[in-house]
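User: Um, what's this?
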Amino acid sequence: MMVGYLLIAATLVLFVYYTYQHLRRFLRATKKGQEGVEKGYYLLSHTYEDPAETGYYGVFQQGEKTLTLEMSLQLYLHTSPPQRGELIAKDGKVIAFNT
C-alpha cells in the first residue's frame, strides 16, 4: 500500500517538473520572437519620401521617444499626419498602424 502512495507522489512530482520545464521553454521562445518588435500607441507626426532610396518614412512619437520607420506606399498614401494609432514595427519597418 505504501508503494502505491510513493508511486503516485513520484508521478505528481515528475508531472509538475516537466510541466514547469515546458512552460519555461515556451515562454523563452515567445520572448525571443518578440525581440526587435516595437508595439504601442504612437503619434504619426509627419511622413516624408526619400528620393535617394525611393522609400517612404514616417516619424512616430510616444512621449520623448521618437522612431523613424520605413512605411509601405499604401500606408504612406492612406495616412494624413498628425494621426494617433497603434503601431507594430519590426526591424525598422512598419508592420501595422491602426488608427
Notes: The longest strand covers residues 37-50. Residues 8 and 29 are 32 Å apart (CA to CA). The first helix runs from residue 2 to 34.
